[in-house]
From TrEMBL:
GO terms for cellular component: cytosol. InterPro entries: MTH1187/YkoF-like, Thiamine_BP, UPF0045_domain. It comes from Balneicella halophila. The lineage of its organism: Bacteria, Pseudomonadati, Bacteroidota, Bacteroidia, Bacteroidales. This is Uncharacterized protein (TIGR00106 family). It holds the Pfam family Thiamine_BP. SUPFAM superfamilies: MTH1187/YkoF-like.
Length: 104
């Protein structure tokens, strides 16, 4: 099973220019967890084998930010597919293949 969870989470009470130091704490936690992830300009996509694992990562992210913030914003999208593993790479490869076909 592949659970792709894309999320953005950051404190909204720290000013628009100073949140990268908080977001970097979350990314460091994800990196150290061993979960497959891809950072993007609007959030981070993680891939886990179960929904429970994915949501646990979101909880850990919140737990990192909560002590320093009175208000935290988060958006989450989830793609769950039972017949797939390595979904993050497969989805990207599928699009890249189609782009190649369009350019021929």
């Amino acid at each position: 099973m592949s659970v792709l969870l894309n999320f953005a989470m950051f404190p909204t009470d720290k000013g628009g220019k100073g949140i990268s130091k908080y977001v970097s704490k979350v990314i460091n936690m994800i990196d150290e967890s061993g979960v497959s992830y891809k950072l993007n300009p609007m959030g981070t996509t993680i891939e886990t084998a179960t929904m429970q694992e994915a949501l646990a990562m979101v909880q850990k992210a919140y737990d990192i930010l909560e002590p320093d913030a009175d208000r935290i914003y988060s958006s989450i999208t989830i793609d769950i597919r039972k017949d797939r593993v390595d979904g993050m790479q497969q989805k990207i490869a599928s699009i890249e293949k189609r782009i190649g076909e369009v350019n021929q």
